[in-house]
Amino acid sequence: MIERTIVKDRKRQFQIEEYVSQRLRNAGLSHVKLTKTPLGEKIIVSTSRPGLVIGRRGETINKLTRELKEKFNLENPQIEIVEVKDIYLDARIVAERIAATLERFGTKRFKAVLYKTMQQVMRAGALGVEIVLSGKVPSQRARSWRVFTGYLKKCGYIAQHDVRKAKAEAVLKSGVVGIQVRIMPPIKLPYHIQVLDEPVTTISEITSEDGNVTREETVEKPKKRASRKKSARSAKTGTRKRTSRKKKEEEKTAEKAAGEPAEASASTAGDEVTPESPSHADTPEVSETSTPSEAPAEAAQEAAEESGDGKEEKA
Hints:
It contains 9 helices and 9 strands. By secondary structure, the protein is α+β, with helices and mostly antiparallel strands. Among the domains are: about 1-85, GMP Synthetase, Chain A, domain 3, CATH 3.30.300; about 90-185, Ribosomal protein S3, C-terminal domain (Ribosomal protein S3 C-terminal domain, 2-Layer Sandwich). The protein is flat, with a radius of gyration of 43 Å.
């Protein structure tokens, strides 16, 4: 007996959902849910266009409640409307939109319609989409056109419970065209795992003035481990930063070492030479800081000048 009542309730629920979906076909209907409450039956209608469901001053929704009460013998039906936030992540709304555009504009540019809806679904944040169009499109011979992109599960638990599926029909002059849509929403897949460090517990003993000992336990929260790619990149950047710092420090030390003797030579030269005298006295001090390639050339020049001065004195 219990099985019969359950089957009867399910059958009644299915008939109510079908009737509501037929009455609100062009209102962007997503799904209809029937629940029982102490006050009566509650019908939750989720749609993308709640204004069309309510109507002017609530005419459409009042008419629908009266029809449900008379046709299905409901005591006190209460209709609740819920607006769908992400339209392009709902397979039924997407399928009905494709059907409406084909009925309105024909099948001349059906490929553009399919690819445009596919891009809109992917922009909404879906992981994958598949749209199948079957019927007499575009010629009199029946064909099936398949458009897909992204990552989509076809078998397993995720394909049965998480992938959103819907079917719709477009009535054209050439015949009825079937539309099948599958959307994989942005869900956390089971093989995406984050490894956390084990929590560290530290026990500290505190002795008061009276001699009482109290223990305090502190538990540190585990930190997320960085992925291998990120850790490798961070290690590379760390080595680069260290090498650049070492180079800068070496350059600074070299500049300081080269600048100290030059300053000392300039100070000694300034004390010995008067402002009117020529600056030939700077040559021996500069030779100390000169490079090894310039040192022999300067020594040869000095030897040539001395030999010239000796010849002049003899003459």
